Amino acid sequence: MVTAQAEPHVTPVVEGEPLAARDAVDVRDSVTGDLLATVALGGSEAVATALAAAEAARPSVRETTVAGRASWCERIAADVRDREAELADALVRETGVPITSARAEVAAAADQFDRVGDTLRSLTGKYRTWTTPDRGGDNSLVTAAPLGVVRCRPAGRAPLATAALQVAPALAAGNTAVLTPPPTAAVTTSLLAETVRSTVPTGVAGFVPAADGAGDDGQADAVLSAGAVGVTRLEQWLGGGATTVVYPDTDLDAAAAAITAGGPSAVGRRLVGATRVLAHESVQAGLVERLADRVADWETGDPFGESTVVGTLPDGAAARRVERQVDDAVAAGATVVRGGEVEGRTCQPTVLADVPRESALRRERVPGPVVPVTPFESAGTALRLATQTGPLGLVRVFTDRHSLAMDVADAVDAGRVQIHGSGAADTEASDGRVGLDGDATAAIERLTRTKRVRTR
């Protein structure tokens, strides 16, 4: 095990200088349980100061060419890769993910900056002919103009990845940004903010840990009106969870493999959120047997172990939450097929069958390696259950009936829908909101507005 370094003091930084804060919280090391960092929290005044500084810095971004902003992204990507060991160590200690998953998250964040930079170089404006009541045939250049100030709030589940998903397109589009992570994501994102500040002009990227705002539960990649003065956009990556619907004609081996692929700490899985499974009552037993066999290969242990798949839970509160969720499901009629034990901050890989439809395991975010399976008796019931949990990050549908799978895809509110089956050829429908392999062009475009430049 790697020995923890002396705990840092994470503070708000505006215009390159530390900003005083009245409140602070202690963040514990998920591996040792010792103090990891003291995080100074910025209140509304600190956030307002950062937003004002970002607004004042907008001219320096406007004066930077598209190629220059692309170079920013590429330099940040290179610096993130250079700091892999430091960032991965922080991720393990802050979130409890295994070191292999932490390294993958660092690589994914760097790739996101590179992808956005590469995409930015290929964007072009175009001429259109406009006709108005008082003038016809005007030629106009339609270009993308930055929105202004973007407030970014990463999720504690995958802080580095979600921060990259927000900050990279915000800067590429020509906006300034203020990163306001929750305390549970402040240590890792402070390192990213430091890297960004070393590349962009002073004031372009502020950093203010803040306890206000939504938590990790909610819809995927919500782009919200912030309401605060000086904020044009609030970028918040919230996951939303994943649901897999397994119909009777399913290849159960393929379904079990998809549900468990990469283990519970895979970057994409953490971005999406908790996994829930709906299985037809005729195939539930066969599916949970296969799931139990596959999660048996998830090695639990030291998060710094190279073969570890399941690390530790971030803190005691998360451990108690998982324990309560499993106990409540069992009390309501669920059956533990494998695992179910929480020892300290370690949760054994767990598979449950017959999970009630109103169980907390279906309604709440589950911070541990738990796969709950709920049976359904008809296609109509499956569709209702798949849509009643609110917005989702990912929906997988396993059936050879393509029309049935498309009914689910049309009905659910999800960032991505994957259809598996002989008639579907494992097709995928996506709006680009979920996953680090999303559409970088769409990410940049949603952080710009259309600007028409008329020529005469």
UniProtKB/TrEMBL annotation:
- The Aldehyde dehydrogenase domain is annotated at 24-210, 224-426
The keyword Oxidoreductase is annotated on this UniProt entry: yes
Does the keyword field hold 4Fe-4S? Answer: no
Keywords, alphabetical: Oxidoreductase
Where exactly are the transmembrane stretches of this chain? none
**Family under the similarity heading:** Belongs to the aldehyde dehydrogenase family.
Q: What is this protein called?
A: Aldehyde dehydrogenase family protein
Organism source for this protein? Haloarcula onubensis
Lineage, highest ranks first: Archaea, Methanobacteriati, Methanobacteriota, Stenosarchaea group, Halobacteria
